Amino acid sequence: MTPSRPLVLVVDDMADTRRLMRRVLERASLRVAEAATGEAALKAIRQAPPDAVVLDLRLPGMSGLEVARAVRADANEAVAATPILACSASVQPEVRREALDAGCDAFEGKPFDIRSFADLLLGLIARRAPG
Amino acid sequence: MSKSSVTPGDAATEFRLASDATMDFLANVSHELRTPLTAILGFTEVIASGMDGPVTPSQAADLATIQASSRHLLELVDDLIDIATIESGRIELLRESVDVGLIVREAAEDTRPLAGEKGIGLIVDVPAEPILASVDPGRLRTIALNLLSNAVKFTPSGGRVRVTVAPVTGGAGAAGAGGPGALEIHVRDSGIGIAPEDLERIFDRFVRVAGPSVAGTGLGLAIARELARLHGGDLSVASTVGIGSTFTVRLPLGEPPR
Fold first, then answer.
1. CB A32 within 8 A of CB A10
2. Residue B128: what are its φ and ψ, rounded to 5°?
3. Contacts of B94 in chain A (CB under 8 A)
């Protein structure tokens, strides 16, 4: 376990959504980094894998599904094991299935419940933590 | 049992293409509405939770109104998608063997906050032992939620809503001797009741016999009945004005032969 507070990378093209997630996660003592595109997210994850990623699926350019697949296929094991929470305003069952098939660990529909959001991420982080 | 194949140019194909476009459109509308609702509901909850500082009782009441109105919009979006999916004729039931009692209990728990706000007692009478049936759990959940929220909406404060699940033996629904049998979900309320002439109309789309004073889309019961029928079952109602209504979902335990 890292001694410092876990870092969550929030990937969403909507600035309002990123700001909301930052507020909620920082309130729960998590650290937050942001990316507005799939390309920027993948670059950040490869440079320094965060403790978890919140991944929007509909992004301009590289989609969330493409980001998830690229992360899971990465040669660096620390990158490939990054916990990913897909978070989308498309909530049809097939979208959820696609996200899980692409390697996301869980799916949360938007609007999300801000009271359980941080716990959801902490759960994913705990599951992946070594030991 | 061969089905006639569909070739391009057929009326059936054109209908299907048209409904593909409609479904894509509706999926986009849903996504585009949910995105701003995420910010509205999220930041309202941030303020209501006191994260930004103390909230006065009057502000809390205003925030609760914003939340209720936003959730109503969300419900409308979901109902429109459901009805369009049913309408397209391509709805596919993802059947699995599930405990119907568990799904009904979960739907009741989701309805409890709404009932609590109105001071309505919600009684869940579901046997402890599982009642297994081959159903689409997501769709069954929609049926249960729609009936429960309907009952809570039309029951005055201080009233009661009771949901029961029980297997039924014999009678219609069982496919002959040794058939898989059936189960019934009853949702009984102590609400305003429904006039005899309105009893069937309430299952029509967009019909709201109570008028606009009760928030709703007029789609919930239509969706619940369609979904029950897709499962090879049905949804019916019995009611007495001023006493209350009982909605009954009857579902076969097994998958009916096509």
1. yes
2. -65, -35
3. 93
Contacts of B34 in chain A (CB under 8 A): 89, 91, 109-111
Band (pLDDT 50/70/90 cuts) for residue A91 is: confident
Supply the CATH number for residue A18's domain.
3.40.50.2300
B104, two tokens: 């009904």
A2-30: pLDDT as tens digits = 458 999 999 999 999 999 999 999 999 99
The reply to whether A18 falls in a domain is: yes
Kindly report, residue by residue over B127-180, the tens digit of the pLDDT: 989 999 999 988 999 999 999 999 998 899 999 999 999 999 755 444 444 456
* Distance to chain B for A19, nearest Cα, Å: 9
- Taking the CA of residue A21 and the nearest CA in chain B, the distance in Å comes to 9
Helix, strand, coil content of chain A in percent (nearest 5): 45, 20, 35
The pTM is what?
A: 0.73
User: B23: nearest CA in chain A?
Assistant: A92
Chain A residue nearest residue B93, CA to CA: A93
Q: Does A116 touch chain B (CB under 8 A)?
A: no
What is the domain count for chain A?
1
Could you give the ipTM of this predicted complex? Answer: 0.91
Q: Looking at residue B169, what DSSP letter applies?
A: -
pLDDT at B228 over 90: yes
Q: Taking CB atoms and an 8 Å cutoff, what residues of chain B touch A115?
A: 45, 49
- Residues A26 and A46: their CA atoms lie apart, in Å, by 23
Element containing residue A120 per DSSP (H, E): helix A114-128
Task: Evaluate whether residue A102 is within a structural domain.
Answer: yes
- pLDDT score recorded for residue B5: 46
Q: Which domain holds residue A51?
A: 7-128
Interhelix angle A64-72/A38-47, rounded to 10 degrees, is 20
Closest chain B residue to A23 measured between Cα atoms? B46
A90 contact B CB<8A:
yes
Asked, for residue A101, whether it belongs to a domain, the answer is yes
B37 interaction partners in chain A (CB closer than 8 Å)? 110-111
